[in-house]
């Protein structure tokens, strides 16, 4: 009897997760700007760096890991303000808090949706940026691996800031102040993976640390996000 109840509970949580994820993806695809803007911003930042630093291939290939990661971080940050904003404005977020459905599942589902429409496209686009910045071909796999893991961690951390500032009119600036210090470890290890891969050095250690940060984020971030949303909406 207990196992039957557990299976039913797991199925209901999975249905809730799937329903929220499907809804968020449909809304994102209807608003093409939400999908395109981070990619354009990513491309613009990566394109402007050579103009401000040096167009020499030797220089660019050396600083390419940092450029790509900073551009990806800023592009992810750009899209965070809209994570809970529309649901807050139409009252959906308040209804979710009042409903018996677990808010943590809803929040985690929204983070997954945000990563699928922001972090995943950035990861798929990163080889093009790497080629533009003369990143060695052997570094491409490390670049995509680090972004695949790291952008999900960025979405989890950023969602905490988005939850805290959803009730404020100008939450975008405050999200940056809250989230950027927490992004630094991800940026350091993500850049380390790409640099090691570009030099032909094993990068498993860096990637394992990033995986550990992601696992910790998946466990702790939904709790923090749901608490932040409750504080922001009720306050």
TrEMBL record:
Q: What is its main location?
A: membrane
Keywords carried by this UniProt record: Cell inner membrane, Cell membrane, Cytochrome c-type biogenesis, Membrane, Transmembrane, Transmembrane helix, Transport
- Origin superkingdom: Bacteria
Membrane topology label: Multi-pass membrane protein
Where does this one sit in the cell?
Cell inner membrane
InterPro entries noted in UniProt: Cyt_c_biogenesis_CcmB (IPR003544), Cyt_c_CcmB_bac (IPR026031)
- Give the residue spans that cross the bilayer: 35-53, 59-80, 119-137, 143-166, 173-194, 206-229
Q: Which family would the database say this protein is a member of?
A: Belongs to the CcmB/CycW/HelB family.
| NCBIfam families linked to this entry | ccmB
Q: What does this protein do?
A: Required for the export of heme to the periplasm for the biogenesis of c-type cytochromes.
Please identify the protein, giving its name as recorded: Heme exporter protein B
Q: Which organism is it from?
A: Neptunomonas phycophila
